[in-house]
Design brief:
Number of strands: 7
Order of helices and strands: HEEEEEEE
Helix content: 10-25%
Number of helices: 1
Oligomer: single chain
Strand content: over 45%
Largest sheet: 7 strands, antiparallel
Shape: globular
Number of domains: 1
């Protein structure tokens, strides 16, 4: 069995994560709980293709933070918030999209 968290996700976060930037790690604000630092891979303009009509694809962009689920005290949820120091912005988590390997995309909305 592959240990995705330590062999893949940890090194990925170490190389591409926000924590290695001079501005510092993101701050996670769980709804109704004490905030704490996390790390993650931030993309200010994640592009997703939406197939409204198979012949006419459309795209939209939104900010996303890719995170290791093992970094959280409780699973992240919609309406939690995250501050990204590298862009000095606080975002609302609009959706959590976990994969089957311990990673999730936090779909964000500017506040």
């Amino acid at each position: 069995m592959i240990d995705w968290d330590s062999l893949v996700l940890g090194p990925l976060e170490e190389i591409f994560g926000e924590g290695g930037r001079p501005a510092g790690k993101p701050m996670f604000y769980p709804a109704g709980a004490v905030p704490y630092e996390i790390d993650g891979v931030f993309d200010s303009a994640y592009r997703e293709v939406e197939l409204v009509d198979p012949l006419v694809p459309s795209t939209s962009t939104q900010p996303v933070l890719g995170v290791r689920l093992s970094s959280f005290r409780a699973p992240p949820m919609q309406d939690d918030q995250v501050f990204i120091p590298s862009v000095s912005k606080r975002y609302l988590v609009t959706e959590v999209r976990p994969d089957s390997h311990g990673w999730a995309k936090l779909m964000l909305s500017e506040m």
